[in-house]
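Hi there. Long-time user, first ticket. I'm pasting a complex I've been working with (about 486 residues overall). I'd like to know whether the download I got is complete or cut off, because the file seemed smaller than I expected. Thanks.
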Amino acid sequence: MQPYSTPFYFVILGLALIPIVIAQLLGKKLMWYQVLLTIAFLWLTFSGTVTIWALIGFGVFQTIIVKFYEWYRVKQNKNQSFVFYLIILLSILPLVIVKVHPLFNPGPGPGSILGFLGISYISFKTVAMIMEIRDGLIKAVPLKEFLYFLYFYPTISSGPIDRFRRFVKELKAPVVTEKYLDLLNKGVFRIFQGFLYKFIIGYLIDQYWLHGIAISATIHPSFLNVSSSMYAYGLYLFFDFAGYSLFAIGVSNLMGYDLPHNFNKPFLAKNIHDFWQRWHMTLSFWFRDFVFMRLVKTFMVKKWSKNMITISNVGYLANMLLMGFWHGLTWYYILYGFYHAMLMIGYDAWKRLKKRKNWKIPDNKWTSAISIFITFNLVFISFLIFSGIPNHIIMHCIDPHFPLPNF
Amino acid sequence: MKEQIFDIIETVSGTDEFREDLDMDLFEEGILDSMRAIMLIVELEGAFDISLPPSEMDREDWNTANKIAARVQEKKDEN
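Hi, the file is complete. Here it is re-exported in full:
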């Protein structure tokens, strides 16, 4: 049973959450019940599938790695770089295997035996922890908290990507009734908002626009068809994913957790920089903190270049390409990453140009509207690439029997 | 120590505007951005022999000259 997919699921979830809500209102966390709930829902989602073993195996594997590194870094107080890199590589190995698998086994068959719903997202959690152990920010990894963090049910399929220290702080804090009432309020609202986004708006966009236009654009590509499919897909992507995120956050809120948000009016972004502070924020900030900033800091410390522009451009490329690869090893995911890197590099260059020429562009409603319009369209072009529709168009030209898109 | 920290901020950002108001938001005013923030981290780490991991740099705690000075002092005291 896919999370958040059927009314039945929500009914069961709602009923199951009632004891936790009551307990929190009475000032108690009911941790044993939370753990039971997590196990029960994981069971509902994964049982009867082979992937349940992948899920469990993955947890065991990551626990061994993280606990080893904790022992090495904290107990032994050693900090050799090569151990750090090795542990990071081991931690991402299952994910890499799962992503590379389709290259060797193309076609609609089952994916790698290591894969399970959420593997891409859980991997972020362990990698971040290893880095923070290295940095000395995490000085202890208590096993129970670690496992609950890893398998936290509301966010297991697609995030938002939480961070260990934040989660544990919340786990340990006592229940404060006013705070919980506020969280409960917001959580319920967000669940309803999620319904609106995913099951009404997203559904309607797909049913009456995206599904049909994607097929038309594939069979009879034209500027109009393709543009229309671009807007349809981008809007669908937002409402669907933002809707899911709202469910995940809302349910977590009901359980007493104030999870970080994923979207903040992304289509009002005035430039690509602003966009990445509004779109899939937990992913964007994860890459910023654990890839971009670390890489740039390494460049500067090791003095691989004196040129700040070169360093930041290489940083953007590495960051965005990695993000592209993380989505999957297809040409269009990689191009998506590369395109966003170019947007970031281009935007920085534009800022430098304005400064050099001393162009003072006024900041008013009109200029804001134009910047938003430009950013919106540049971003939607990236969504078109990401959607795979161009891939369908090309493949259909080569082989008319290639399967049509089925959004 | 505060003066040394402010000198470093000035070198990294290329401006001393922030000295007029040590509580102005350096990121909002464009005095600091992600790149300069990292340069700042590298310089501060070197100058005070402390460790400043990027993922710890919560912008809310690091966005004014005064806050930066306070954070560095805390780190120094930790060691």
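A couple of notes from our side: Chain B has one domain: 2-78. The radius of gyration of chain B is 11 Å.
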